[in-house]
Design brief:
- Two copies of one chain form a homodimer.
- Chain A has 440 residues and is of the alpha/beta class.
- Chain A has two domains: 113 residues, Roll (Urease, subunit C, domain 1); 289 residues, TIM Barrel (Alpha-Beta Barrel).
- In chain A, the strands form two sheets. Chain A has an eight-stranded parallel sheet with strand order 5-6-7-8-9-10-11-12. A seven-stranded mixed sheet of chain A has the order 3-2-1-4-13-14-15, with helices on one face.
- In chain A, helix 3 packs across helix 16.
- The N and C termini of chain A lie far apart (66 Å).
- The mean pLDDT of chain A is 97.
- At the A-B interface, helix 3, helix 10, helix 12, helix 15 and helix 16 of A face helix 3, helix 10, helix 12, helix 15 and helix 16 of B.
Chain lengths: 440, 440
């Protein structure tokens, strides 16, 4: 008697991203309820299991869901609002005024639905978000059926989120309590950056995160301006500054880290800080190029983030992998730097680990939660095929993503989401954009 | 009475890439036979013309066909054959042995069909090719119905193409005579590079090109190794070396130009040399980053090339534009460097000019040949829309290309080509790859 299961996902290549020998050729992944219960050669799997639904097959590759470790999802509504501008003019003249005027529950919920549709379409199943009105984000994300780690930005001055430091932290604690047992949403604490948060704010954030065993999401060493500003204020560069106050540990997901020097890279490695490399945003805003090859060599866990779509201008981890795996070869002068498989590890297993979810997510193995992406290889740009890792990183486009499964449920198939209304999302985006345009 | 025409292409945005005010909102392009006969607001156009076929409409952008100014199309069969390796090991251990063993008429024809399908799918209508068995390339390209400028590589040693210098040049002249009046194919002369061609070979190539009024396609200043090697041999850097022999003029399309110094950039500008910027290949092979911002400032005509898919690993000008427009902001430290519209000019009008075809191609205006690309904007990553140039360059993917018209004929629609058999192309690629794998 065959065992009844929910879904069998078949692939000409299964990229488990485990330390076992891989890829599995002509393999299959068995899903029961929310979890992966078996992985192996298709023949052996189909002898033992009978599924309600079969997905994938010849001409497909199956990879773990991609992890976006730094974004501001709702900023999709500012995509392309202002480009090719100096950072100060971009922020102060366009983005901040638009945020001031429009941010609210509805804006964030509607925008995050669009962001979820975009991320699912490009194979992202889990993202790490820092913004405002994160309750609204959570609503959109649960509706989409995808996963996220959410934290409301904490800054040393009043914003739409709170007026006092106590209010920021009361709300953060409330948010943690509300979501800590959620199946798809994980809360985090999100002190914005060293130039907007005092060491006391960071301390309080880390204490709160420790109390509830959640992650801390922050920006760190993004621009030369930040390095200079933190130097002026504290006499130290940003990583050393946080280190000197004992604020760095393995809970921290630090976005950007464009400007750490050699010693600071060693600090990040020894403290177990995870770095979210946001290459396309760093390039487009002219922030610089993070020393990824050095960070990897010294043992820093580097992962990929898209940052917000206002500075990227998309939410596409496949494109980040491709750009990074090529660019760091030129920057380091070493054509063997950042191999295709390492780039895919950064985008999957290491990403899940960075967000404190490595035990249950990030690779394809029995016992893990079923977050999978099926990639259709039958496209001219993926022919012929010698090395599947090379193809996924250097040749695939996010449009090759065919099916996405999160928590054992099919949440995207052939570009369509069973949970999200594409036409309604586009319509609402158009309506919001009209209002935003008139204001800017 | 309305005038009967062949095709009317409608677009919510028509990006003419002319110096006239643009984009045209809710516009239309009128095609009769091979040419554009009118462009303007849709209302005015539909009052005056009646077309056999209507293409595009709301939610579409229409741009000129993209121009790939440097590739080795048939190398698609080596895509992903060997990655993440030092250049010498990649070339000598993998690419050259495979070429030695497999290159021939059938290989190049079959591989070029795949390359044409890939390029059309990503909106490329015209490419500049340097390889061997260019007669085979021409057969595939004419079958696909796209345009190319083709030149057989000339080197100072025997290759599959010829055994002696006289044979190279006799064949080159024969090829020019055969194709110079072709509707879709233009011949060029292709001395390979300063390190494989003596100044005498370049002189002879330029004389031949002048005799028949065709372009010269060469590699120039691609790697540090080349700069050192040319320095050892001739006591000069590559651009100065060619300049000192009077070999630089406006016929030259120079691929790469990663390492020209300030003075060499001025030489390229004053001689009217066109540069093909092959960013993704330069990154992946760790060749370096070309000084594009400086070249543009000094008036060099910079265009985009994909190089061969063995070092990229795709043939995608939309991706090159996006990577370049972001990267050069970071490299130059100036977030206003390389604007989206300039990137699109490089990929269209300037590309056509570089290939000597600027009079008839590269922009959307009455009297030009009808090479057009329709981009579907109804995708989550293109919503909302504030600035169409920003979207095409920073957010669009080549998979958003919906319809491609070359010479007034629809050559791609919804991913399918009326002239190319996708399944047969994939099957042949698989067969060739199997043989190549066994050999390597």
């Amino acid at each position: 008697m065959k065992e009844k299961v929910d879904i069998i996902v078949r692939g000409e290549y299964i990229l488990t991203m485990t330390d076992a020998e891989e890829p599995i050729h002509d393999g299959a992944v068995v899903i029961k309820d929310t979890s992966i219960v078996d992985v192996g050669p298709e023949e052996a799997i189909t002898e033992r299991y009978d599924a309600r639904r079969y997905i994938g097959g010849k001409g497909c590759a199956v990879i773990p869901g991609l992890v976006n470790t730094h974004t501001h999802a709702a900023m999709v509504y500012f995509r392309g609002l202002a480009d090719d501008l100096p950072l100060k003019e971009w922020l102060e003249g366009h983005i901040w005024p638009a945020e001031q005027k429009f941010l609210g529950y509805d804006f964030v919920r509607d925008a995050t639905e669009l962001a979820c549709l975009e991320m699912l379409s490009s194979g992202i199943t889990l993202f790490n978000d820092m913004y405002f009105f994160e309750d609204a984000s959570a609503d959109a994300i649960r509706k989409a059926g995808m996963r996220a780690v959410l934290g409301t930005g904490i800054l040393d001055f009043p914003t739409v989120a709170a007026s006092t430091m106590d209010e920021y932290f009361e709300k953060a604690e409330e948010f943690i309590k509300k979501y800590r047992d959620d199946e798809l949403i994980k809360p985090s604490v999100a002190p914005h950056a060293p130039y907007t948060c005092s060491p006391e704010t960071y301390k309080r954030a880390i204490r709160l995160a420790e109390r509830y065993d959640v992650t801390v999401h922050t920006h760190l060493s993004e621009t030369r301006w930040e390095v200079e500003e933190i130097g002026r204020r504290y006499g130290k560069s940003p990583v050393r500054h946080l280190e000197s106050h004992g604020l760095l540990n393995e809970r921290i997901v630090a976005a950007h880290c464009v400007w750490p020097d050699e010693e600071e890279i060693e600090i990040l490695a020894s403290r177990g800080v995870s770095v979210s490399h946001c290459l396309e945003s760093n390039l487009k805003l002219s922030s610089g190029i993070a020393p990824v090859t050095d960070m990897l060599k010294k043992g820093v866990r580097v992962t990929f983030g898209t940052d917000g779509a206002a500075s990227n201008n998309d939410l596409d981890i496949i494109s980040e992998m491709s750009t990074a795996a090529k660019l760091h070869k030129a920057v380091s002068g070493d054509p063997t730097a950042l191999s295709a498989r390492d780039a895919l590890l950064m985008a999957t297993r290491w990403g899940a680990q960075a967000l404190g979810l490595g035990e249950r997510l990030g690779s394809i193995e029995a016992g893990k939660l079923a977050d999978l992406v099926v990639i259709n290889l039958s496209h001219p740009h993926l022919v012929p095929l010698y090395d599947i890792y090379s193809h996924i990183v250097y040749s695939a486009k996010s449009s090759d993503v065919e099916t996405v499964i999160v928590n054992g449920r099919v949440v995207l198939n052939g570009g369509d989401s069973p949970n999200l209304d594409r036409e309604e999302i586009f319509y609402k985006a158009g309506q919001w954009a009209e209002r935003i345009s008139k204001n800017s």
